[in-house]
Design a protein that fits this description.
Helix content: 25-40%
Number of helices: 9
Oligomer: single chain
Largest sheet: 7 strands, mixed
Distance between the termini: 23 Å
Strand content: 5-15%
CATH architecture of the domain at 103-319: Alpha-Beta Barrel
Shape: globular
């Protein structure tokens, strides 16, 4: 949960034809195609997947790679690349091998309940569930990024070209200086979710103060990005019964926390086995060298090595929740 700080606006992409041509040449010349590059996490050859972008998101601009938000229904831009191009993209971004391709999203989203031990006093099944893992047998995990302090254009390009889905949980005090950066992120298919206005410790606030933090952030995201979030993550993972009742009243349907946390040089684990499990939610933050001695790209390289080496693909949280 990083502190306040400024950032840069979103970056631009090279024309798609030029990017693809360069990558194809690099792949052919270097012979770097990874044999398993076209395999999905469950071992099946990938065909087409439904687009995971938010409904109504604008399409890609002229000369830009079509990201998840701009891909037509039934397709995913980078999932259609062959092993040679995917290997070249992985090499370009410093990955040992391409990310595994997630299986198609479930036709029916799984039923999610609050994790044992995460209940609130006086709570019931009508409140949004609080959970750290999505119930699924798919070998997928979910990457989520909090706060919004670091606004690195390289992250947008890297995640788009590698076709790695992720979800953002935004605090307005860190985002308001560059709404356009996150608008571009949304255009590329990233879900923008609620992380309060000012990132306070919610149980220490009155009911009305909590309502302002949660519901006013709902209104800000809807005004800036045209969609009212249904997912909410309380700062520091702390909440009480008022938090969940208020969140529900503002349109929140679920409260995803996390089962692991990613940094550029290590992972932190919630479970004693210090391992990934199907459906685990991974937390990281929009931070840079000033905070943790590495860039957002460094963090992505590190967490993707862990995920891929353990045989998992990254899926889009909003496709399951």
């Amino acid at each position: 949960m990083s502190g306040p700080g400024g950032g840069r606006g979103s970056g631009t992409h090279r024309p798609a034809c030029a990017v693809l041509a360069a990558l194809l040449v690099a792949a052919v010349c270097s012979g770097c195609a990874w044999r398993a590059g076209g395999r999905s996490a469950d071992g099946d050859e990938h065909r087409a997947r439904p687009a995971a972008g938010p409904p109504g998101a604008p399409g890609p601009g002229p000369g830009q790679l079509a990201g998840r938000g701009g891909a037509p229904a039934g397709s995913r831009e980078n999932a259609r690349f062959g092993p040679a191009v995917r290997a070249a993209l992985a090499k370009k971004w410093g990955l040992d091998r391409p990310p595994l391709i997630a299986p198609p999203p479930p036709a029916v989203k799984p039923h999610i309940t609050t994790r044992e031990g995460f209940e609130v006093n006086g709570g019931d099944d009508s409140l949004p569930p609080v959970f750290t893992t999505v119930p699924t047998k798919d070998r997928v995990v979910f990457l989520t990024m909090d706060d919004g302090d670091e606004k690195d254009p390289e992250l947008l390009q890297m995640m788009d070209e590698l076709d790695i889905p992720y979800s953002a949980f935004l605090s307005d005090y860190l985002v308001r200086d560059s709404y356009g950066y996150f608008l571009e992120m949304q255009r590329l298919g990233v879900g923008l979710n609620n992380h309060t206005l000012n990132h306070p410790y919610l149980p220490g606030l009155s009911y009305s103060e909590q309502k302002s933090e949660i519901c006013d952030q709902q209104a800000v995201i809807e005004e800036q990005y045209g969609q009212r979030p249904t997912l909410f993550r309380p700062p520091y993972g702390n909440y009480n019964a008022d938090t969940l009742r208020i969140a529900k009243s503002c349109g929140i349907k679920a409260v995803p926390l996390w089962n692991a946390e990613a940094f550029p040089d290590h992972m932190k684990w919630r479970e004693a086995d210090q391992d990934l499990h199907p459906g685990d939610i991974i937390l990281t933050h929009f931070r840079g060298r000033k905070d943790w001695g590495g860039s957002m790209a460094d963090m992505v390289r590190a967490v993707m090595k862990t995920i891929t080496d353990k045989g998992y693909a990254v899926a889009r949280l909003e496709d399951y929740v």
